[in-house]
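Repro:
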Amino acid sequence: MGLAPRGVVWDLGNVLIDWDPLAAIAAGVGEDEARQFLDAFDFRAWNHGPDSGGSWEDAEAWLDAEHPQWSAHGRSYRPHFARSLLGEVPGSVDLVRRLHRAGVPQWGLTNWSAELYPHAPATFDFLTLLEDVVVSGVEGLAKPDPAIYELMATRTGHPLTELVFVDDRADNVAAAAACGMDALVFTDAETLRADLLRRALPV
């Protein structure tokens, strides 16, 4: 496939960090209620507000006003957020460690609110192996906005065409590819390892 990429950009949630909002919401309202909420309510769209730089106060106030039947459910998420971080995704972080040992630079690009992101470095030591993590809520930009990928070129010091991007969401991967990145949809660590090996990366 030609020259090896100059670095790897990782999504965090459900690529390196196993994240499930159910556990956090269930801590406040119980698992049955939490499942009903997640089945009936577009949690991803609601969560995208703080991920894009909005405040949790505003997101919760909107929920109170527009969907009061789900107010207690949504308001359970933030105070119990740490419970949503279930551990490392099996095998993925091993790839990060192998690349780090081989001297391949790596970065994070995550949709995560500025308020809640500090839980990640406090919980997962492997994040210190990344050169930098671009956090959407801090930047006021979120995937799949093309601007956040262009920001990666500035933060990494590399053209996007020199970087591999890994994300579990197809829309984020498509947006990255449209910006020139070699973008991969994450399904599991073994498939990803094979994809990286085909790119001459030392995993």
